[in-house]
Specification:
The protein is an alpha+beta fold. It is built from four helices and five strands. It has helices spanning 11-18, 39-87, 94-103, 107-126, and strands at residues 89-90, 130-143, 147-159, 167-180, 183-191. Strands 1-2-3-4-5 form a five-stranded antiparallel sheet.
Length: 192
């Protein structure tokens, strides 16, 4: 007597079980790092790497250019101030004028400037010299983040006891400035 719980297998059921409805290929085994061996994945990874390198180089160049522009701008501003300090003086406080220039100079230029100012100090006091400087124009000739050459056009209105009327001297100079712990200092001065 057949068990009611058991199923009867028909010939049709057996035919269906042996004939595959659709054949799917078995996936190739993917070993360790196998996904990296696929060409489209490699192309995407390589693309991201190239983009990262290009972006990094662009950021580096932008920072370098920004630092250079900032250095040149700061040096130009300092050069204009120092040109006024050099071209403006009053015999009544000449030592203060010379000290101000020396404080804004490199050690080598301060030494040269002291030698010249010591000689000029007596003459300026004797003839009661007064000079008012004006920076007419200025620009950066060349430079990097540590040294900048500035060209300045400076007019000086000079009065003293030897001249009845004030005279205007027009000076053209090239000032080289060096960065010293974040502060620009006069390193050399050449009259043009």
């Amino acid at each position: 007597m057949p068990d009611t719980m058991s199923q009867t297998v028909t010939e049709e059921d057996m035919l269906d079980a042996t004939t595959p409805a659709s054949v799917e290929p078995e996936p190739a085994p993917v070993g360790r790092g196998g996904w990296l061996r696929r060409p489209h994945v490699l192309a995407v990874v390589a693309g991201f790497l190239v983009l990262a390198v290009v972006a990094g180089l662009a950021l580096f160049n932008w920072r370098q250019e920004s630092a250079l522009t900032g250095a040149r701008s700061a040096a130009l501003d300092a050069g204009k101030r120092y040109a006024l300090d050099l071209s403006t003086y009053d015999y009544r406080k000449i030592d203060d004028n010379f000290t101000l220039v020396s404080q804004n100079s490199s050690a080598a230029f301060a030494k040269q400037y002291k030698e010249v100012s010591d000689q000029l100090s007596g003459i300026i006091k004797q003839y009661q010299g007064v000079s008012e400087g004006t920076v007419v124009d200025a620009g950066v000739a060349s430079g990097d983040t540590s040294r900048v050459d500035v060209v300045l056009f400076v007019d000086q209105k000079i009065t003293n006891t030897q001249a009845k009327d004030p005279r205007v001297d027009r000076s053209r100079m090239k000032m080289s400035l060096v960065s010293d712990a974040g502060t620009w200092k006069i390193d050399s001065l050449t009259l043009l």
